[in-house]
Amino acid sequence: MLILSLLLQAASPQPAGPPPPPAQPPATMAFEPAAMLIATGEWDMKKMANVEDLPPRPFLAVLDRIGLPTRIREGEDDRALDFA
Length: 84
Hints:
By secondary structure, the protein is α+β, with helices and mostly antiparallel strands. 35% of the residues lie in helices and 10% in strands.
């Protein structure tokens, strides 16, 4: 099915100019904060683990540093996540 779709795309005329930006960021973006934590040693994985087993605070801090802050919405209240 994917091959057929690619063939049909290749056969159809393409508009002039640069292609439009993707609607969503690449899926690999979700793994970059986790890779950063593993590389710095904050998430020291000596065994196989699920992401749910890892401490969330370092991950949420990295998300905030790269421009993806975590917010909490409760009813009309909307505030930034603060662990203090």
